[in-house]
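Subject: Sanity check before I submit

Could someone independently write out the structure tokens for this chain? I want to compare against mine line by line before I put it in a report. The sequence has 308 residues.
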Amino acid sequence: MDISVQTGGIVSRWGPRDGCRLIREAGFDGIDWGIDEAWDRSQVQKGNLGHCVFQDSLEEIQAYYREELAEIRKNGLKIFQAHAPFPPYVKGFPKVNSYAIEIYKQCIRFCDSLAIDRLVIHGISLAFDDKTQTKQSVEEMNRHLYESLIPVLRESNVTVCMENLFTRCKRQTVEGACADPHEACAFIDEMNEKAGKECFGICVDTGHLNVLGKNQRDYLCTMGTRVKAVHLHDNWGDDDSHLAPYTGNIVWDHVLEGLKVIGYRGNLNFETHQQVAAGHMAPETAAIWLHTICRIGEVFAEKLEKNQ
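---
Independent answer below. Compare away.
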């Protein structure tokens, strides 16, 4: 079983050369490629839709990522999945949705051109401070979002992975898209039926489950074979801290039990960027954390592979 880590935070902090080197030297087999940094999220959240490289031609996108891709390959890292930009909806700025959809189509084409067969695309969550939306209207927005991608997905070998989310406003935290596993299963099955093939699955985020107080094992077992990727990281239930396992209060045996029950054979991806790429972190210290996280991943893999 392969062990991977996200590039987000690491490559943006230390650049493609040193970032990829740190990941390789820690022992990781590959990465979750953070192409979500292709747009300025803080500006998109304000409705400022500037230029994004995924508005360009496929050739121009490939040229933009040439240096980073060369470093990934030079270090022998596999790209197990990529993470698309987000959010696909911003209250008060309806143009964000159509802007995001067109960018996601190019993200799919780009991933397919590089044989990256998993792409994480966040859904739209109902924010309880948004009086313009209801649960039903948000469901329809998500239906429109993912249905819009089906024609491109049919022509590719890419599976779009939704992600279980939470939303927060004024110190209150509520369930976001795919937080309810039964609703998520029904929606994924509906989208795959409309696509006529398996174009959709889920990336299960352990940190998001913990913030919502969800039972990790039960969630994973309900999602079953729809689980195509994972984001493994820890927190204390009060914030999405992206910590290394065992530095928060997640019961990791429950996560492993769930993964084992569903027969998960994908890579074990660690989304621990806020710990290994904190503003005060020196690369020498980050290397220690990355090495430790990778060793934890190897222990997880050994437990999952035992008696299978």
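---
OP: Matches mine. For the report I'm noting this point. The chain is about 45% helix and 15% strand.
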